Amino acid sequence: MRVELAEVEGWLRERLPGLAEEHGVPGVSVAVGVEGRVVEAAAGVLSTATGVEATADSVFQIGSITKALTATLVMGLVAEGLVELDAPVARYVPGFREATVRQLLCHTSGFEGDVFTDTGKGDDCLEKYVELLADMPQIFAPGEMFSYNNAGYCVLGRIVEVARGEPFGRCMRDHLFTPLGMTHAANDPYEAILHRAAVGHRGGRPVPVWSGPRSEAPAGSMLAMTPRDLVTFARAHLTDEGLRAMREPQVVLPDIGWGTAWGLGWELHDLPGGPVFGHKGNSIGQSAVLRIDPGRDLAVAICVNGGDGKALMKEILGRVVESPAEPVPDRAARPDARRCAGVYLSSTSETTVSEDERGRLWLEKVPLGFAVEIGSEPYRTELLGWRGNSLLPAKPGHGPVAFLGDDGEGRARYLHTGRADVRAPGRTEA
């Protein structure tokens, strides 16, 4: 199905202000590109405190979409022969734990990856951050499975610094922003303030801080830009044959609604209409999505600064690009309570799965550490049958969860929601 840009532009200009209001989104900006042509629209405000209008030239934080840009920098090093994908990371970061560059790129390195330590604002912040990872537990053997790993992308950022001999932000500007003509892209608050910059919101109010630490910049704590510049970046991935390898499947994903597989930095969807790839991003009170359809030479980028951004994004994406079908519970499927029940831990959450007297399975998640700091809230929901080892939370807004592996006693070892949380030894809930 061909996308008519004029129709998309007209719909966005007519509907975007209403959509933002309906979903409680303070400000939103959208860009859609087809065959090199781009239309864009914006609505709302950058901050409810100032009332400054959101425009197409406003920069929003893109969160973890940054990982796709970091991966692109790494692939530039690979193309120049400065880095090998299957080389141990220790070749470039001496003393680093067992893992290859490829495993970092596709989230299969296996160590605890939710590490959000602020190591300062200096050019040595990444070097200091990477040193802290020696103490992180190894959850599974490298290459064994997928588990989303923020810290791994900070290590990749450090590899870029070592290979280029320059701080990460300068590498980003010199090797991506400037060559691609990304004119409204900011590495940090000092660059963002040169543009109309969005502020994150929670509960309709501006958040008290603009970004996360500089040490996490390669994973997505700081980078801000316009959706137009995101589409410009996507265009490079549609036209540069040297980047095509990034969308080749590297690891099959658990059945959790995230996609079919993960590539070298991209989330991959194998859909009836053909392959689609992209990334999502969340930062402090802001969120974004980038979706790319190579078969139609199309890219769409959406940035919001609060509210129910997920619902707004879903409605816009549905107008221009094929999306995965929404999961529907299988009422005939009976969750295996004995296999699933227990307590599962990570650095950012404690999740208890238990069976009630009527045989229903319940999940209760309590945020820990950094998750509390960024505003995550506890929730409880029934788990409904879906397919295989994957169950579907009854509470809206939460994706499927998968119970994977074996603890040696016939129970799941991991609760997988994108990250593999590990069963706590000796703690079962039935």
How is this structure best described in words?
Helix content is 26%, strand content 23%. The model has no long low-confidence stretch (mean pLDDT 95). It is of the alpha+beta class. It has an 8-stranded antiparallel β-sheet, with helices on both faces. Strands 14-15-16-17-18-19-20-21 form an 8-stranded antiparallel β-barrel. It has a 3-stranded antiparallel β-sheet with strand order 3-7-4. The protein starts with a helix and ends in a 7-residue tail after the last strand. It folds into 2 domains: 1-325, 3-Layer(aba) Sandwich (Beta-lactamase); 337-423, Lipocalin. The chain has helices at 5-22, 66-79, 101-105, 125-132, 150-164, 168-180, 189-192, 227-239, 309-320, 337-340, 370-373, and strands spanning 27-34, 37-44, 60-61, 185-186, 201-202, 205-206, 224-225, 251-252, 261-262, 267-271, 274-282, 287-293, 298-304, 342-345, 349-355, 361-367, 379-387, 390-393, 401-404, 414-416, 420-423. A hairpin with a 2-residue loop joins β5 and β6. Pfam families: Beta-lactamase. Residues 17-309 form the Beta-lactamase-related domain. This is Beta-lactamase family protein.
Outline of the structure:
By secondary structure, the chain is an alpha+beta fold.
